[in-house]
Amino acid sequence: MTSIRRPKKAPNGLVFNSSPPKRHFDHSSPPDDGHQAKRQRKISPLPQLSVKTRILILSDTHGVNALPERITQPIDVVLHCGDLSQGGELDSNRTTIALLSSIDAPLKLVIPGNHDLSLDEKYWSENCKPQASHIPSAARAIWAGKEAQDAGIRLLETGMHRLVLVNGGVLNIYASPGTPVATRGVDWAFGYATNEDIYNPAGAGISYAITTSTPRTEIPDHAQIDIMMTHGPAKYQLDSTRDGDSAGCPHLFRALRRVRPGVHASGHVHGSWGVSRILWEGEGERGSLPDDDDGCDDGVEGRKVVRVSDADGVRLVEGVVGNEGVETLLVNAALMGDGGKLDKLPWVVEMELPLMD
């Protein structure tokens, strides 16, 4: 190898420096692109896969025109679980639309309840006078009208719904206005017999049930449901009347246990306003079901404490609800109290929902 000698002194007084040159950067001269890309790869955050979503739940307002307190909390979606009116009156429906419009939220989802007679065409045709046959279509028109649409209000039909929210979250919800009616009980809207199962597929119900489910009312096996939204509660789950009777539906509990949603929202039983949390057996695995599932403790490993706090016109359930099949938050949001007054507050639940692909 040929060696090269560097002269001790450069011509014309220049001095050689054998150390490598230093590189200086300022704001007008950024590092090379490759170096910057490496830095960006190191500090780039992971992509967001879900979004925290605030859900306000209320029920049984029965045509009252104002909530107990003004709601100032930010809300992503409102759920009204039925009994929008006292007896199906058209003016009561309009009043409830005005009440929902007062809540600042981009989307309000609504189902009828047993008092909403004019929204049940079958009930109306069988029980009301022919000269009032136009009332059901008039009631539906109110909920499909401009005032409701401008307020983001949507009356849900029975069945499964997949909704993309304004915040980008995807909400999978099952809706049903049905409630069981005793054999000798008073006939109401959207009623079914206590031994009638409208929720479970044939072969998946309780042994003594008569399966009358349809493709619309049936909750499929292994359905991924974030929220089950029904007017009535499940059997023994926030369903105690003031007389101590259990007014919930055992077939609904069967479906609840089978699909294990993150939240079950309901109303109907005014005396059982509140929240509870079920811990299911099997660590999220939807196992085999017994023939007789009375909804008392079958499949339930235990209960988990639910911490709540007051927050500007609502009761806030603390913590974020997931949907892994391990537990279900039960919410009875019936606001109606004594004397025709709303004396309870709506509930607010926070859920982690997946973002739309």
From TrEMBL:
Region annotation (Disordered) ranges: 1-45
Chain intervals with Basic and acidic residues compositional bias: 26-36
Calcineurin-like phosphoesterase domain ranges (all copies): 54-271
Signal peptide range in chain numbering: none
Pfam families hit by this protein: Metallophos (PF00149)
GO MF annotation: an example: hydrolase activity
InterPro entries with a match to the protein in the record: Calcineurin-like_PHP, Metallo-depent_PP-like, UPF0046_metallophosphoest
Name by which UniProt lists this protein: Metallophosphoesterase domain-containing protein 1
